Amino acid sequence: MKLHHYGLEVSNLEDSVNFYKNHVGFEEEKRLVLMGEEMVFLTLGDFRLELIASHTLSAHICFEVSNLDRILPMLTGLRKVEGPYQLDNGWQTVFYEGPSKELLEFLQTTKNPKSEN
């Protein structure tokens, strides 16, 4: 498991993108609309920041995993928030509430985990 990104919901997506690019030094990686949510991924070295257009203004941390099916049994005792489901780009994701009610995302970006050991 490795850190994939930190997700931050923002009230003005373009203002936030401009701030992180112009004042912090991030570069734009890609723009997406997934499940009706507009988002922009920014990178600063190896760090990835996901900005999500929203009115709720929350945050989440995302861990990239090689096989989501292997991770799910390890999350017993945590409350599932949503998922698992497959995104349009083929990735699979699930969201859980951590022990202090923090939002945790587990993301599988590989398409065929059954070939992995």
Short synopsis of the structure:
By secondary structure, the protein is mainly beta.
Description:
- The protein is mostly beta strands and 117 residues long.
- Helix content is 14%, strand content 50%.
- The chain has helices at residues 13-24, 68-71; strands at 2-10, 27-34, 37-44, 47-53, 59-65, 79-86, 92-97, 103-108.
- An 8-stranded mixed β-sheet has the order 2-3-4-1-5-8-7-6, covered by helices on one side.
- A hairpin with a 5-residue loop joins strand 7 and strand 8.
- It is globular.
- The two termini are 14 Å apart.
- The mean pLDDT is 90.
Notable features of this structure?
117 residues; mainly beta; eight-stranded mixed β-sheet; 8 strands; 50% strand; globular
The low-confidence parts are none
User: Count of helical segments?
Assistant: 2
Enumerate the strands of the largest sheet in spatial order, edge to edge or round the barrel: 2-3-4-1-5-8-7-6
Oligomeric category: single chain
- Kindly report the average pLDDT value: 90
Please tell me what the overall shape is: globular
Helix content: 10-25%
Proportion of β residues?
over 45%
Distance between the termini: 14 Å
Biggest beta sheet attributes: 8 strands, mixed
* Total number of strands: 8
Q: Structural class from helices and strands?
A: mainly beta
Rg for CA atoms = 15 Å
Query: Order of SSEs, N→C?
Result: EHEEEEHEEE
Topology:
Blueprint: E1 2-10, H1 13-24, E2 27-34, E3 37-44, E4 47-53, E5 59-65, H2 68-71, E6 79-86, E7 92-97, E8 103-108
Parallel strand pairs: 1-4, 5-8
Antiparallel strand pairs: 1-5, 2-3, 3-4, 6-7, 7-8
